[in-house]
Amino acid sequence: MELHNGNLYWPETFSNISNYPKLDDVMTCDVLIVGGGMSGALCAHTLSKLPIKTVLVEKETVGSGSSAANTGLLQYANDKMLHEFIEKLGEERAVRFYKLCLKAVDELQVIANELTEPVDFVRRDSLYYASSEEDIPKLQKEFDALKKHQFDVDFLDKNEIKKVYSFEKPAALLTKGDAEVNPFKFIHSILENAHQQGVEIYEQTDLEEAGSDEEFMYFKSEAGKIAAKKVIYSTGYESIPFAKKLGGKINRTYAIATTPLPSFPNWMENCLIWETKRPYFYMRTTKDGRIIAGGLDEKKNEVPSSNYTIEKYGELLLQKIKEHFPDYQIDVAYSWGATFGESVDGLPFIGPLPENDKVFYCLGYGGNGTVYSMIGAKMIKDLILYQSNPDAEIVRLDR
């Protein structure tokens, strides 16, 4: 399926791209990773620390799928608020999941610091504002839940927001512990590092399952074959036929990157900004002084096919920015539309198939895909090595 359309920003920011060969050999490995996006890259990096043979295969080029359209916000807070998760999952499991997300941002920073290539990873606060007066009680309830469980959060009223921003909103939460990254640089640098540590990487290789026995799963491509003891499918939104059975769905979204501002954007410490309305609008800044904004999600399971549609929605996003910052002299420089996956319960799909413990899925469906992928990489490593992980039951495929 087509994952994005339009003029992407991130590929223009990074030219030091490693090329990997097609698979044209017969080989055996301990773990095969299918998919070279963010999930696959993080799984490869995590497994590269272990004395096991790992192979990653991508049917196009690494980082060219949904990850190239990723806007690079790394937040522990989810599309579902903590208090909403508590109502659905119970307090213990909901808090445990939010703590996992916060820890994953820390782990992403550790990986970014290990890389030789800078990936523009910066820790940021997040401003989560009430889109209307009616949403204030919901924000207050979320503040109480976060505060109770020792998350670093402040409640801002209308006057406090007005002091430090050029816009007015009824109320907001200011949370600590989030981050931003250039996802395209991040993926390529992670995989280059994993390759140097011994992970074999193949591009332009479309694999098909070719049977199994007690020890191996077998795969074939046009010119090669792989026998793998374990396989991790990190195929993102291309896994939607499988994910639909689990409660997944595909929608589409829009994003822009503006022209650089003459001076760097000056909102409070360049925090990440998003809102309570659904679908929500969000903004962040970039290293070169642009604003990336996204939203205007639609319940359509294919990318917008016409440039006219993408440009129209790009102008709408630009107007949303200017509603917040009317003095900014900016235009749309890049605009794109992309598909994204969501689960019914707001959780990712991570873990082994119940009927086949050789097969794992790492599907970071939801607004926090990179954070979920970090959780998945660590979790699947534990499941492969030790057959257990204390948090795996929260995101298991058959939940």
Describe the protein.
- By secondary structure, the protein is an alpha+beta fold.
- The protein has 2 domains: 7-13 and 20-70 and 184-246 and 346-395, FAD/NAD(P)-binding domain; 124-177 and 247-343, D-Amino Acid Oxidase, subunit A, domain 2 (D-Amino Acid Oxidase, Chain A, domain 2), CATH 3.30.9.
- It contains 10 helices and 18 strands.
- The strands form 2 sheets. Strands 1, 4, 5, 6, 7, 12, 13, 14, 15 and 16 form a 10-stranded mixed β-sheet that branches. Strands 2, 3, 8, 9, 10, 11, 17 and 18 form an 8-stranded mixed β-sheet that branches.
- Helix 1 (38-47) runs parallel beside helix 6 and helix 2 (82-89) crosses helix 3.
- 50% of the residues are buried.
- The mean pLDDT is 95.
- It comes from Metabacillus halosaccharovorans.
- It holds the Pfam family DAO.
- InterPro entries: FAD-dep_OxRdtase, FAD/NAD-bd_sf.
Cα-based radius of gyration, to the nearest Å: 21 Å
Order of helices and strands: EEHEEHHEHEHEHEEEEHEEEEHEEEHH
The largest pleated sheet is described as: 10 strands, mixed
Low-confidence stretches: none
How many β strands by DSSP?
18
